[in-house]
Amino acid sequence: MFHHITVLHEEAVDGLNIKPGGIYVDCTLGGAGHSSLIASRLTEGARLISIDQDDTALAAARERLAPYMDHVTLVKSNFRRIKQILHDLHITQVDGVLFDLGVSSPQLDEAERGFSYNAEAALDMRMDQQQELTAYTIVNEWEESEIASIIFKYGEEKFARRIAREICLERARKPIETTEELVELIKRGIPAPARRTGGHPAKRTFQAIRIAVNDELNAFKEALEDSIEMLAPGGRTSVITFHSLEDRICKQTYQEYSKGCICPPGLPQCACGQKPTLKILTRKPIIPTDVEQEENRRARSAKLRVAEKLAK
Ligand SMILES: C[S@@+](CC[C@H](N)C(=O)[O-])C[C@H]1O[C@@H](n2cnc3c(N)ncnc32)[C@H](O)[C@@H]1O
């Protein structure tokens, strides 16, 4: 049973301002919470393309979306291929693109996927089960400096170098096979007083390794830029992020595309001719209500940002 509680369910779909006959893309199908709401607002002639790289999500979503399958297309792929996916479907412009980033609850709950620091499993963490790179490779084969760098950059973990050192000392003795072994090494790398504050000591390092395994930040940046390019005038992007690194990419990309003239100050008139591509509709991100945060822990760090494509 695929059980994922959709975060900012109505808010993210309302953000798309659905036109009943439009063409929409849900880049992160997951348990199809957002996709089924979008599909329920579409009428004949409309189209929803829902993408996920996880086979389990696609199988479950197929059932949930059964009543709408006449206007829904499911695609197993990385969303960083959005342009190619749309091109293959002969679609040149879309009216809205939704991202609800990160992992789904089933991915976290199925211990054998290796995403959780609370369950023993092989070091995996792949969203796409056919991908080659796994957490095992990163932990056992990457250079110590590379491991330290991703833990610092993607986990914002200040003891990154010490943790990387512990990992490399251990793997010189024998390969590190499981999430549990990794958790122990992370704990060893964090001084005792720091271990007692700020949640589970392995949280930041697990997040970092997961981001690296799935190349999450680069995939999102590329896909967001390509989505903006594929939007029809008046089309919208609606993006839910769950940590500051993703949110920063969204905010900065929206800002870049909403900039007009970039001439140096003091010129008597504009020489660059640059026009803004996007209008940002959420100056401050929308966050889940207190009730939603109370009911769903995952919702606590969620932020929604919406932007609209301007006419040229
Ligand atoms: C938070 S869940 C989405 C939940 C969904 N909105 C719902 O309401 O049920 C994120 C999903 O996006 C997928 N995903 C994350 N990054 C992806 C990528 N680069 N390409 C394709 N799918 C991705 C994950 O496999 C996961 O199923």
From TrEMBL:
S-adenosyl-L-methionine binds at A32, G33, H34, D52, F79, D100, Q107. The keyword Transferase applies. It is an enzyme of class 2 (transferase). GO terms for molecular function: rRNA (cytosine-N4-)-methyltransferase activity. It holds the Pfam family Methyltransf_5. GO terms for cellular component: cytoplasm. GO terms for biological process: rRNA base methylation. Its main location: cytoplasm. Its EC number is 2.1.1.199. InterPro entries: RsmH, SAM-dep_MeTrfase_MraW_recog, SAM-dependent_MTases_sf. It catalyses: cytidine(1402) in 16S rRNA + S-adenosyl-L-methionine = N(4)-methylcytidine(1402) in 16S rRNA + S-adenosyl-L-homocysteine + H(+). It comes from the Bacteria. SUPFAM superfamilies: Putative methyltransferase TM0872, insert domain, S-adenosyl-L-methionine-dependent methyltransferases. It is found in: Cytoplasm. Keywords: Cytoplasm, Methyltransferase, rRNA processing, S-adenosyl-L-methionine, Transferase. Specifically methylates the N4 position of cytidine in position 1402 (C1402) of 16S rRNA. Belongs to the methyltransferase superfamily. RsmH family. This is Ribosomal RNA small subunit methyltransferase H. It comes from Aneurinibacillus soli. The lineage of its organism: Bacteria, Bacillati, Bacillota, Bacilli, Bacillales.
